[in-house]
Amino acid sequence: MDGTLDSRERALAAMARAVQELGYPETTVRDVLERAGMSRRTFYELFHNREECFLATYDEAVAGAFRRIDDACEPDGDWPEHVDEPLRELLDYLDAHPDLARLLVVETVRAGPSGLERHERTMRQLAERIVRARPAPPARDEDLRLRAEASVGAVHGILHARIVDGRADDLTSLAPELTRVVRELAVAS
User: What's the whole-model pTM score?
Assistant: First the structure.
């Protein structure tokens, strides 16, 4: 079993590297095999196809990002400050894993309907975390949800542009400005 887990982890890491270098549409199973140092047979024992490997890589990356975000949430923190540290943790995570940053922010929507569905679900989950972080939601809870969705979309758009333009070398430095964007969009009552 340990060999299978090791092979799976190698395949996921190789998929992330290949997608960072080539983009999802151009990445082939052979690209993953070469980077993972594994046989085609081993790959197909783990995954049915390239898309399944990509989506598993995405799911693992999202889980890692959410662990960082959730660990940073202070249950007793003030509402505006409550979003600061989780956002900084997300940016730190993306900086520490540039291959996953591209996969999470840019390439998932290029992976067809399943990738787009996962991307949309992740965006909703991020917005929901903003909504839940508010200790006492305003009377118009739907307004808060809309503002949370807008703030997640704005941050995503900024990160997407930076990654696509090759300016993603220090995403953490964007934390103060992005925090202000989230506060102005999601926190305003």
Answer: 0.90
- How far apart (Å, rounded) are the C-alpha atoms in residues 25 and 19? 8
H/E element holding 105?
none
Phi, psi of 62 (to 5 degrees): -65, -45
Question: pLDDT tens digit string along 86-145?
Answer: 889 999 999 999 999 999 999 999 999 999 999 999 999 999 888 877 665 554 678 888
39-56 in b/e form (b: 16+ CB < 10 A) is: eeebbeebbeebeebbbb
- Residue 126 amino acid letter: L
C-beta separation of 19 from 50 below 8 A: no
**Exposed, middle or buried: residue 152 (CB in 10 Å: 0-12, 13-18, 19+)?**
buried
Helix intervals (H) in the chain? 2-22, 29-36, 40-46, 50-72, 79-82, 84-96, 98-102, 112-133, 141-164, 175-182
Domains and CATH numbers, the chain: 50-187 (1.10.357.10)
Contact between 14 and 35 under an 8 Å Cβ cutoff? The reply is: yes
